[in-house]
Amino acid sequence: MVTFRASATAILATALVASTSLFSTSSAFYIPGFSPTVFREGDSVPLYVNKIYSEKSPLPYAYADLPFLCDKPKDAKKAWLNLGEVLRGDRISTSDYKLVVGKDIPCEILCRKSVSAEDATLARDFIANDYNVEWIVDNLPGATRYNLGDGQAHKQWRYRAGFPLGKVKWSKSNIHNHVTIRILYQSLPPPSDGKLIVGFEVTPYSIDQGDNDECPNDPLKVAAFQAVDKEVEIQYTYSVQWLEEKEITWNNRWNLYLASTDVQVHWYSIVNSIVIMLFLTGLVALIIMRTLKKDIAIYNEEEMKDDQDEGAGWKLVHGDVFRTPKYSSLLCAILGSGVQVIVMTVSTIIFALVGILNPFYRGGFVSFGLFLFVFAGAFAGYYSARLYKVFRGPSWTMNAIVTATLVPGFLFTIVFMLNLFVWSKNSSNAIPFGTFFALVLMWFGISLPLSLVGAFFGQRKEMIEHPGRTNQIPRQIPPPVWYLRPRYTVTLGGLLPFAVVFIELFYILKSIWEDQYYYMFGFLSLVFAILLITCVEISIVVVYFQLCDEDYNWWWRSFFVSSFSAVYIFLYSMVYFTKQLSIDHFVPGLIYFANSLMICIIYGLLTGTTGFISTYWFIRRIYAAVKID
Questions:
Q1: pLDDT (tens digit, 9 = 90+) per residue, 405-423?
Q2: Most CB atoms within 10 A, among 298, 356, 462, 592?
Q3: Quick one: which of 561, 538, 501 has its CA closest to 280?
């Protein structure tokens, strides 16, 4: 991916095959090596409580720690969490809900809780902000069912993960103190006679205190609601139903959670991206096949040397085009981190395409992404050292250390400062000290040494050869044409990569900030491949016209042309914040924009490095194709 020599047609064809299986509603999601849990009659099935979350706030809270709910069991056990689950605010622990295979429970009292006025106010705030509850049974999140079809005649049941903590009615916040739990199961044929859990539905109710002295027989007939805006005694109850399911199997049990996205919109996104890419491809072909080929032929004609100054001007700067740029050490460090991001992103998408990373695997994307980023430090050190050697830097070890610490250190500082605000809100999204220690250990114990190892091998490689020699005295750069000034080329050049991804970006933002599952990995791989091709082409086109204008300062511009689309993505995230979200508090807003900034930095590194590497290869090729005295 660093040199991007793969055929664009092959990339698109491979991704298209993958996408047709991934957006199909009959596709199965599983982790290779994981097998279903077989339950038998009378077995106890644990119900895990996780957190409450809201689309109106990026601050989740641990369900077991909420003071207005039942106290956590004395023998409660916390589930082991991977790094991604910890960072996304998961806090999974056992509960007192009793689920026995095959045993229906009409109604069971969970606890009676005396809620103070202060805790009731906290509950009212959570309910007013539309917080939802996440429970887990057999790795399935508790879900509420809704009809995707038109009316009762055409029912298409789908799941929405989570269920409301309460609801607001008549200006009062009413907590859901009764839940009906429905466990859907698939019966295995003899001789196994076991059951596989294929569905976990939760229907919440608010039951009036007067009717709640004893457990009601039918909560559906209870019309009153329980307000929790003052000190009150609340009784929490639940019912359990075990229902055999004939159509849903264990392999496709996630389909009801995932089949709610309009696939046609994603195809519109792909068509939009392909049109932009084909436009740029035609422009690049025109330059390379006609203009550039003609230029090279003219330059190589001995009898036409006297007319060379009247032709295109890119050969005139052959003695300065490979001159070491300003801040070359910084450029090496940034490009090394960009290579690291490219390796991480490509590897993560491949894992997603083959089915290892999917909604079944909570926190998988974050966990795999972090570990891949850490181990890709070797690639960062290698490429940075090779480029540093071209610029004749004095200390490759210092360059490797800067490469391994500059960008990660900046991002880590943002995360640490942001975490102070999250801690102040007692959110489960606050990163524990142990996790911080693990991140630092991964950074200094794995990524930094690997960067040094990669730099060691990189500096031992032969220096990248440049055609011709660099003049001792820099050539004077003539005043540029107005439309080739850096502010115009960079600003307009960044628009095209953004135009390729902005439709798919909407669904990615929804999955990040509105707790919706994103599973269109085939479409994602298509858009990603088109994005990289677009970055390659726009960087080459802009730098070619810049060289024709006799401006040889292309090093930084080749990076900024495609990476500037990150600025547009950040502006788009601001529009998304105002149009799609209802965040109206300082800390949640700070979390949103700080995370958006970090995402845009990573995206900018990816696109900018892709543009630089391709442009660097292009320039070496065209100057090697002409005779230079």
A1: 999 999 999 999 999 999 9
A2: 592
A3: 538
